[in-house]
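Quick question, first post here. What does this chain look like in 3D?
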Amino acid sequence: MSETLSEPSPAPLSAAAGVQVGEERRLHPLTLLLNLSRQVPQAILGLIALRLSGPEELRGWVGLFALIAILAMFGTEFYKWWRFSYRLDPQELRIASGIFSRNVRSIPYERIQDVNLEQGPLARMLGMARVRLETGSSGSGDEGALDSVDLAEAARLRDVIRLRKAAQAEDASMAGDLTPAEADAPVLFTMDMRRVLIAGVFNFSLVFFAVVGALINNLDFLIPGDVWNPRRLLDLLGLDDLFAALDLAARIASVIAALFSLLVIGLVGGIIRTTLREYGFRLERTETGFRRRRGLLTLTDVVMPLHRIQAAVIETGPIRRRFGWFALKVQSLASDSDKESDHAIAPFATADEVRAVLDETRITWETDHAAMRSVDPAMWWVPVVLALPVPMIAIGISATLASPLIALAYIVLPLVPALSWMHWRAHRYALLDGQLYVRDGFWAQRLTLLPVRRVQSVDIRQTAVSRFIGLAQIAIGVAGRPSAVTIQAIPIEDAIQLRAQLIAS
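> Answer (accepted):
Ran it through. Tokens below.
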């Protein structure tokens, strides 16, 4: 069995005939096992719930229900697999699916922009991969997917689609042989295990508690209603009498210890999460763009054509920036996955490494916070003036009617203008050498680098308040980006001038 997605040698053009034109093919038979593995845990939880908390007269039938459920799931998945097929025609890829209602999707090769391979843990053990096809028809999601095929078949599909796409474009140099170019692709950026672990320390995560919360949400029928009562928990752990005997200082120390434990759990969770995602990270420069491979359990092999890259985003934070670490992402016409809208091409890199990768994209990083223009201070004080009186009045009423202790909430209210002020200080922009720079965020700092040639639309927006004080928000539309690039609270004259510069360029 192959250890990584990159090990199966891509088939040369002569070997590509193994995928015959017009031949109907089905997914790998073990796709049934993959699909059932996703459904069985939920079915088991449902049967446990029925057995423990369902009607008494049905509890004895759980075994029969389990057998029927397994047979039904297997029958449905088998028929779905049997009815799914794909075919490589001379001009297009056809995918037929549907149990009762049939759907035949035709995807011309010239429209296919990316052919990416993905392996989950079980698929990796079985030597299979998921083939994701992306076109320019949508800003996110897959145009088509083959889940799952043999790993060698997945590599052949990727090569045949590329070759036929190149042949349709009458690009002889690309249609000749892609194998040597891909094998000799220069490496732009890698992450060894040491860097992955350092990145995990900075990516503090409480994913452990999210997993526990999900389990509790699914297994709440097994948990007593008063399980979260602190006194009950202490009694369950045999610490009730001990905690009652502690003085105030000891209780405060125990709370501090609990917070420290939370910090340790967050650091460990960040390391685990980062290792699972970024292990073996490798970015290569191919003839047409970037090729990225990463993942410990779920391995992904993604190709990013340069002509589809619309903008770049550099992310960092006060602590990470002090140590000289940044994350580089690019916004493409297709999403990275079902959960992300950006492609991470250097998740944990130095400034020099980020600039070296950006040089391949014709996007530059020539300025930063200090040299950029700040927006109007109304960005921070207008929301405070409009929103802060409501919680102030609510706290006063609650303290009067319920308990005077509620008035202690006034202590945290100064945080609202402080956070608003810091957010305003972080928000800056610049238009320099045909490229727009927009910076957001104080803690999660995000610098968007947008070439003016990629601008699709420019909107000037004003609310009743901003119109009264002569300010506006400018929103720049970019293809493939779910939301516009926005610049807040700039004078209306500056907004009109900036719009003219962006459109003229």
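Residues 15-185 form one domain.
The CA atoms of residues 161 and 336 lie 20 Å apart.
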